[in-house]
Amino acid sequence: GTIKGTVTASKKKFLPHTIVYVDSIKGNFGAPKEHVLMNQKNSVFIPHVLPVLAGTTVDFKNSDDVAHNVFTPDKSADKFNLGTWPSGEIRSHTFEKRCDKVCDAVMLCNVHPEMEAFVLIMENPYFAIANDSGYFEIPKVPAGRQTIRIWHPTMDAEAQQVNVADSGSVAIEFTLVEKKKK
Length: 182
What we know:
Elements: E1 2-8, E2 19-23, E3 36-41, E4 44-46, E5 49-53, E6 56-62, E7 68-71, E8 81-85, E9 90-95, E10 102-108, E11 116-122, E12 127-129, E13 135-138, E14 144-151, E15 155-156, E16 160-164, E17 169-175, E18 177-178
Parallel strand pairs: 1-17, 3-6, 5-11
Antiparallel strand pairs: 1-13, 2-12, 2-14, 3-4, 6-9, 7-8, 10-11, 14-16, 15-18
């Protein structure tokens, strides 16, 4: 079946950075053979949030006229440093790290400290990014009772359970709130 829904927030700017995913579906999910692109343009990582299945290779392209670097800090799920490279070049990294549910790797540029992005390493392929209006759709979800969660860099929402049928769709709604400080 398909899980469709919406995410709402106090400010619309939060919506397109929200990942909605099905929790704990075990299986042997092969990573895509094609690489996924994260661009660096106007000193910004595009996209800001990128969910990938564990084992996916991400190409980091420098589309600016200045040199950029991509590295992850010590606390990231998948620590690496691709070095610094000029405009037009691409450097790649395969996100092999597997987590119990989802883990994030923070992308930073040591040339431009204001640059930040997130790569989410997912354990299964049942996830979606909410669009600018907060709408999302996760197709071909296995039938049964499923727990649906969200990930957002600064916001949070309660997990919800839905019953997914063999065919058709089920609707769900999330409301983002500020993450509680730990």
